[in-house]
Amino acid sequence: MRQMLSISSYLAVKEVWRNRGRFLLVSLVIALITLLVLFIAALGEGLGNGNREYISKLDAELIVYQAKSDTVIAASRLGRNRLAAVRRVEGVADAGMLGTSSASLLPPNDAEPIKVALLGVEPGHTGEPPVVQGARLSTDLAQEAIIDANTAYRSKLQVGDTLTLRVTQGTRDEFYDLRIVGITGGQQFQLQPSIFVPFYTWDRIRPKSEAEINGSTPVANVLLVKLKDPTQAEAVSARLAAQVDNIEIATIRQAIEALPGYSAQLSTLNTQGGFTLFIGILVIGGFFQIQILQKVAQIGVLKAIGTANPVVAAAAIIQIVVVTVIGVAIGGLLSFLLSLTFPPTVPIIFNGATSALAIVALLLIGPLGGLVSIRYAVRIEPLKALGLSS
Description:
The protein is an alpha+beta fold.
């Protein structure tokens, strides 16, 4: 066995070295396929993360929606009376209101406005993000804001600065100034950088229709529920449904999957990645099939002098693996170098587990693509290959 592998390795590496220009070209094609697959995987991770980032980092286990809202945050409306009822349910440690809307942030120095997610949270309750710099929100009516790292990067605003928001209320644009008291980590909401304000401040400054301008009853979109025992999520959900009218409950995972466009984005990108891998199999398979056809006579000579089929097959497999590994290594290095040039605003994230899975798949497509050529190589008859059979 060791002798067979030694001979096979010698034959494979010797041919690759003697025809290094040709094999390098194939390795570069595999490198480009690797680059494409890794970037599709990173783009899928980046878009998914940008859509779910705030929800996935919540210090909560359950999200309460209005009944028949199909677990869509924007379609749900819940008043403060529901909040009080939820907090009374056994097993609930805390609950906080969350209001969502959009606004335009006007950066200093007359820069282009930035579309942001304007989120209303209750200071000191579930939903308020932890800060990495500065302080948390003080009171429900404070003219304060916490901005996430994406907002800080794009606007160049810092703790202590005053930000200006432009929102549409009725048919007029209104402008509001808020003091930045803290900066949190990445907390994007539905692919938008986020600004967190006290809930009642949010209700006052959020975009409104003409009918809502004179309204005085604050209404949240959803309630964020933290449990005393996270393992009892199912039991607490049942109690919430029984004791609070006209609501539906979702876990964090269910809430993420229900985000608009989230599943469709991931499905589309995963399909693209799958087709790219399939194209890689065809390219590698086609190249090595041509290689085998070009050296039928050489294989015939090897078999005529006593080389066994397992040696021929092993040499072909080793050759395919070597070329594939070189191509994947080059592609992986190019992906890493290119990733360093992208600003944080580009939604590309190279997740270790996802990238490793993509690389393993890429390493497997070489042998898979070469199966046909290997089968053809072991079936070559020496006399026919040398033109000596009648």
